Amino acid sequence: MVQEDLFKKIIAHSKEYGFIFPSSEIYDGLSAVYDYGQNGVELKNNIRRYWWESMVKLNENIVGIDAAIFMHPRTWEASGHVSAFNDPLIDNKDSKKRYRADQLIEDHLQKIDDKIQKEVDKAVQKFGASFDETKFRTTNPRVIENRQKYNEVHTRYISALENDDLKELYQIILDTEIVCPVSGTRNWTEVRKFNLMFSTQLGSVSEEANTIYLRPETAQGIFVNFLNVQKTGRMKIPFGIAQTGKAFRNEIVARQFILRMREFEQMEMQFFIKPGTEMEWYEYWKEKRMKWHKALGLGDNKYRFHDHEKLAHYANAACDIEFEYPIGFKEVEGIHSRTNFDLGNHEKFSGKKIQYFDTEANEGFTPYVIETSIGLDRMFFTVLSNAYVEEKVEWEGSAKEERVVLKLPPELAPVQLAILPLTKKDSLPEKAREILDRMKFDFNCQYEEKDSIGKRYRRQDAIGTPFCITVDHDTLQDNTVTIRYRDTLRQERVTIDRLPEIMGDKVSMKGLLKKL
Ligand code: ATP
Predict the structure, then answer these.
(1) 70-79 average pLDDT score
(2) CA 17 to chain centroid
(3) Which residue, judged by its Cα, is nearest atom 13 of ligand 1?
(4) 40-71+211-388: what fold?
(5) What's the N-to-C CA distance of the chain in angstroms?
(6) How far is the centre of ligand 1, averaged over its atoms, from the C-alpha of 494 (Å)?
């Protein structure tokens, strides 16, 4: 299947089965804003819990907070967001479409890279085992020519970013003859800066009102509370503060479903350390976070690190963890060494001393920070897109049929257990409800009696329920039920008393956390 088609199918599926709806859909939606439905909210909560428990429960030196979305406006001057939280934007005059200039150039570079890779792939096929890739890359004229083109543009691009040179970004777009994907023309406006923060007014009387911002990242709520938490929790460095919550960015281009939204959720942890130890902790958290991702079993080869070309104004090292979505590798999480930029600036702007006193060394200092920052919605899409499978299966002796199944990690599935009486009569519903009443305290259960058992199985497959429990006439005699396994379609007959033990092992968050 073409990957773009797969992307569209997953979006359609997530709406049809109550995972994600466009916001205010009856008014034709609001661009890049989405609502989570009845199954989506469960999956999202489970991902959040997996992250929260891995941070706060498993690390005795990490505690959580929940700061407000609104913050004093000076916060955003201190953090650099008022002056530096900008994207370079460019408009095409024919299509009236707006783009990020940096992304247009990066897409162009990617295309050159793809051309080189194509040449290499062709040669591999042609020469087989005897192929010497390094030699080919350094001698093939077409590869050399494209590599030179790439390097030229790349060097100019990086230097333009570093110098914040908007004219040069514009010139690169002209020189490389980048066209608008919609109109196909090169009729561009100049490149301008665009601040991504949403503003609003505080107070009910507009004349007296102050402009405040919707937070563009959750991190600042942690920095301004550094002293509160450190003192009241008697925290000793190194220690971390974790938080999950909404963030808002007026993204210029927001066409990638929940990968780029204007209102989204972040899960961030700021880890406070001694200056000079940041590279050690940076490596530590890179490894820890990758392990967290891989423990979900989505496929180790689907992840890669990507070092930042241009460091943000606050960072001295930064990388992304990228995941391979149906539309290619994209960032899901960032790991940043933020130095003492934020705490230092809040000290300057607030006039309050923000220092940590090391009693052993008998000295005070402004801590350095390593941050891990993951988008909950991007993580949601990581799990969902990876789970979506269309396959042909054989239902109990019948001909092969196509099914759509979400092979979600059982620990994260919105419904863990579906309890299904074979028919609506002969006291089977009563027996099934008896089981439900026992299981619902420990598991997310769903009771369903409508339609044939086959149809109900398929509905459960489509929302990713790992186990269906079928109650039939034998159940009334011997207290046994059938467990039907989502991925293998295997059926197993077990006594009702054993259900908590069998299910518990497979769906508990504990199993997942123990892998970390
Ligand atoms: P990008 O380069 O994709 O714009 P970023 O580098 O600006 O992302 P960070 O500021 O590092 O992102 O934010 C941390 C995480 O928050 C990202 O890794 C991503 O998962 C998530 N995130 C950022 N912007 C959005 C958005 N507009 N919609 C959904 N998630 C987002």
Answers:
(1) 94
(2) 20
(3) 373
(4) BirA Bifunctional Protein; domain 2 (3.30.930)
(5) 35
(6) 46
